[in-house]
Automatic annotation (TrEMBL):
GO molecular-function terms, A-Z: oxidoreductase activity, acting on the aldehyde or oxo group of donors, NAD or NADP as acceptor
Keywords on record: Oxidoreductase
Name of this chain's protein: Sorbosone dehydrogenase
Species name: Elstera cyanobacteriorum
Entry-linked Pfam families: Aldedh
Length: 513
C-alpha cells in the first residue's frame, strides 16, 4: 500500500449478536407454493465478509427441484388464475408485498448487510427503495393497456393487446440482493407473468425471505419460484429450458453474453443489465463542494461493487491539480469498517478472491505509471475480514485498463480533459455505456455533454440519484433493454394485433357461374 489509509471502524459491543439474532433460522426455497428446507444437494453456507462468521446456511436446489419449479411456473401461467386476474387484483397483492417488505425491513436489511458486507444504514435505505418500487409496479399493473385504431376504414377496426410474455427466468447478482430482484419481479408479476428466480448463491438470504412474504401476501402457487444454487447447476437449466419464454439478467457482461447465446437457441426474449465504467465529468465552473462529495460517493459507495459506480473522474486540466489535492484529503477520511457501525460508509468486499482481483488491478495500474494518492491495498483486519482501502489513482491514461475495465471495487481513476468534446470522447472510449455525470453551472455545457455521451443515464449536477419512474439500463456492453420506468411492465409482454372486419368482404377470386 502506497497511499495514506484509513483506520477501520469497529461495531459497538453487542451489535453483531443483535444482528445475528434477527437472521431467520429456517431459510427455505420456494417451489410450486411450498417451502423446501432439505434437498439432495450439499448445503451452501455464507460467511460475513466483514466479521468472518457464518451468517447463512441454505438448501441448494437439485435438478429434480429445478424441474419441479419450471413445471410449476409453466402450469401457473398456462392454467393458473394469475394471468387472468384483473390489474386491480394483481395490484392489491403487490401492495401487500410492499407492506410486508416494510414490516420486515430490519430483517431484510440485516441479511443484506451481513451477507454483502454493506453498511446497515445503506441496506435500510435500499429496502425502503425496494418497497417503493413494488408500489410503483402495483400502479402500473392497473395502467397496462393496448391501442385501438378506428381509422382503418368504415368496416375495419384494429386493436392491439398486450399479453404477458409467459415464464420469466430472473438471475440476480450479489451486490444489491433485494433491490435488484425488486427491479424485475414486481413488474413481471404486474404483467401477469410467472417467474423463476435465482439469486446469487453468495447472498440469497433476503430473496428467500421475500419468498415467504410473497406467499403470506397470497400469491397463487407456482407464480414465483425461488431457487438457490450455482450457475451451472441451477442458473443454466433455468435459462436453457424451452418452457421459459424470457431471461432477465443482471450481472457481468461476460455472463450476459453467454446467456444471450443460450437465449438465441429458442429465440427467448432477453433483458440484460450489465457492467459499467461510469465517469463524472467536472468542469471548472461546477459546484466544487457538491461535486467532490458526489465523486467520493460515486467511487466508493457499496465499496465500489456497483455497476453504476462512478469509477472514473474526468476533470478539466485547469483545475485537476487542486481537485486531486482536495479529493485525496477527503478520501483519506472516508469511514471504512464494520457495516454495523452507524458511521461506516465503506464496508467489506464480497469475497477473498474478489479482494485479490481489486488489488491486482491497482498493482497493474501502478506498473503502467499510475500514482496511488490514497489507499492502494487491502486493510488489515481479522483473517476472514475483507476490506479494501478507498483508492485514488492519478496519472491514468485512456489506454490503461484502469480507465477502461470494470474493477468493481473502491477504486477511482482520474483522467483529464481540455474541452467538452474531449470529455465526451473520453467518456465514450470504453465498451460500456451505463451512466455518466456532468458538473457545470452552464446549462449549455450540461446539455451538450448529456446529448453527446452514449449512456443510458446522464446525471447533471448530481450522481446516482434514482426513482422508479425513470428507466434504467445501458448502451453497448452495459446491456439490452431498460428496467423501471412507465414501460417496465410492457417489457414483460408481447403485442398482439386483432384485426376486425364487419360486413361483406370482397372476394379475391370467385369463379364464374
Amino acid at each position: 500500500m502506497t497511499g495514506s489509509t484509513p483506520s477501520l471502524l469497529s461495531a459497538p459491543d453487542g451489535a453483531l449478536a443483535a444482528a445475528l439474532a434477527r437472521v431467520p433460522t429456517t431459510p427455505a426455497l420456494l417451489v410450486a407454493g411450498r417451502f423446501v428446507t432439505e434437498t439432495s444437494q450439499p448445503r451452501l453456507t455464507r460467511q460475513s465478509p466483514a466479521h468472518g462468521v457464518t451468517v447463512g446456511d441454505y438448501p441448494q436446489a437439485d435438478r429434480a427441484l429445478v424441474e419441479d419449479a419450471i413445471a410449476a411456473a409453466r402450469a401457473a401461467f398456462d392454467t393458473g388464475p394469475w394471468p387472468k386476474m384483473t390489474g386491480a387484483e394483481r395490484a392489491r397483492l403487490l401492495h401487500r408485498v410492499a407492506d410486508l417488505i416494510e414490516r420486515d425491513a430490519e430483517i431484510l436489511a440485516t441479511l443484506d448487510c451481513l451477507e454483502v458486507g454493506k453498511p446497515l444504514t445503506q441496506a435500510r435505505a435500499e429496502i425502503a427503495g425496494a418497497a417503493d418500487i413494488w408500489r410503483y409496479a402495483a400502479g402500473l399493473a392497473r395502467d397496462l393497456h393496448g391501442e385501438s385504431y378506428a381509422t382503418l376504414g368504415a368496416n375495419k377496426l384494429g386493436v392491439v393487446l398486450r399479453d404477458p410474455i409467459g415464464v420469466v427466468t430472473m438471475i440476480t447478482p450479489w451486490n444489491f440482493p433485494l433491490l435488484i430482484v425488486s427491479q424485475k419481479l414486481p413488474f413481471a408479476l404486474a404483467a401477469g407473468c410467472t417467474a423463476l428466480v435465482k439469486p446469487s448463491e453468495v447472498t440469497p438470504g433476503s430473496t428467500l425471505h421475500l419468498g415467504r412474504l410473497l406467499m403470506e401476501a397470497g400469491l397463487p402457487m407456482g407464480v414465483a419460484n425461488i431457487l438457490v444454487g450455482t450457475g451451472p447447476e441451477v442458473g443454466a437449466p433455468l435459462a436453457e429450458d424451452g418452457r421459459v419464454d424470457m431471461i432477465s439478467f443482471t450481472g457481468s457482461t461476460r455472463v450476459g453474453q453467454h446467456l444471450m447465446a443460450v437465449a438465441a437457441r429458442d429465440l427467448k426474449k432477453v433483458s440484460m443489465e450489465l457492467g459499467g465504467k461510469n465517469p463524472q465529468i467536472l468542469f471548472p465552473d461546477g459546484d466544487r463542494d457538491a461535486a467532490l462529495d458526489a465523486i467520493l460517493f460515486g467511487g466508493f459507495f457499496n465499496a465500489g461493487e456497483c455497476c453504476n459506480a462512478g469509477s472514473r473522474l474526468i476533470v478539466h486540466r485547469a483545475i485537476a491539480e487542486e481537485v486531486l489535492k482536495e479529493l485525496a484529503a477527503r478520501a483519506a477520511t472516508v469511514p471504512v469498517g464494520d457495516p454495523l457501525h452507524p458511521d461506516t460508509r465503506v464496508g467489506a468486499i464480497i469475497t477473498a478472491d474478489h479482494l485479490q482481483k481489486i488489488g491486482a488491478a491497482v498493482s497493474e495500474a501502478q506498473a503502467g505509471g499510475a500514482r496511488v494518492l490514497v489507499g492502494g491495498g487491502a486493510l488489515k483486519a481479522g483473517p476472514d475480514q475483507l476490506y479494501f482501502a478507498p483508492t485514488l489513482l492519478a496519472d491514468v491514461r485512456p489506454d490503461m485498463a484502469a480507465a477502461r475495465d470494470e474493477i468493481f471495487g473502491p477504486v477511482l481513476s482520474v483522467l483529464t480533459f481540455e474541452s467538452a468534446e474531449e470529455a465526451i470522447a473520453l467518456t465514450n472510449s470504453t465498451a460500456y455505456g451505463l451512466s455518466a455525470g456532468v458538473w457545470s453551472r452552464d446549462f449549455d455545457t450540461c446539455l451538450t455533454v448529456g446529448r453527446g455521451v452514449r449512456a443510458g443515464t446522464v446525471w447533471m449536477n448530481t450522481f446516482m440519484d434514482g426513482a422508479p419512474e425513470l428507466p434504467f439500463g445501458g448502451y453497448r456492453a452495459s446491456g439490452l433493454g431498460r428496467e423501471l420506468g412507465r414501460r417496465a411492465v410492457e417489457d414483460y409482454t408481447e403485442e398482439k394485433t386483432l384485426h376486425l372486419h364487419t360486413g361483406p368482404r370482397t372476394g379475391w377470386w370467385l369463379p364464374r357461374a
